[in-house]
Amino acid sequence: MDDPGEFTAILDCNPPVWPTYCWSPAALYNPQVFRNDEDGGFQAPFSLPSGFRVPTMSQATYPSLKTHMLEHQWLQNVEVECNPAFGGFGGVLDCEPYYFNHALNSKPVTLFYDAHVDLIGTHQAMLDDRRHRNQVGNPDWGLWSTDTPFGGDVDGTGDGGYLIGSGYDWANTSYHILTTEGIHGRDILGKQ
Q1: Full domain range(s) for residue 61
Q2: What predicted TM-score, i.e. pTM, was given to this entire model?
Q3: Nearest-angstrom CA–CA distance, 105 and 107
Q4: Quick one: pLDDT at residue 18?
Q5: What's the burial of 180, exposed, middle or buried (CB within 10 Å: 0-12/13-18/19+)?
């Protein structure tokens, strides 16, 4: 923290100190990468001429419903400190924490594209995703993309996700990370 560099190696071969916040990766790609199921679903960014072009913040279609940055680690309502799925590396990595989407009780502090800050619960994100799938009448078109190569078949359904299989409980969401339609999509639906 005392070094002015953005990233500096820590002496004595200790692992780096990783930040606790992360931007939404889906919002950093061309929105066509995370297309909804009815438009063809996920397509590799290499297959598009501008697949890696980062949209401007003003391109957010639902700025009050799209997460920009959140606490990556499970920091609010923590029940268990260390995730055994990531252990065995020695030293600090033996206590890798659970991530924001690994527990139903997780409520990461979240910055949205309209610049408001709120606590968004993993359980609420799951309920909103289910509500969206029911409203559009397509079980494959949720708020987060389940057809990416990231994560593979984590639950036997063929749906991929962001390290869902390493979770603490039955939380099953990849909101923020794999948002359908990227910056044009939503991670929550708002008030019912």
Answers
A1: 20-192
A2: 0.85
A3: 6
A4: 67
A5: buried
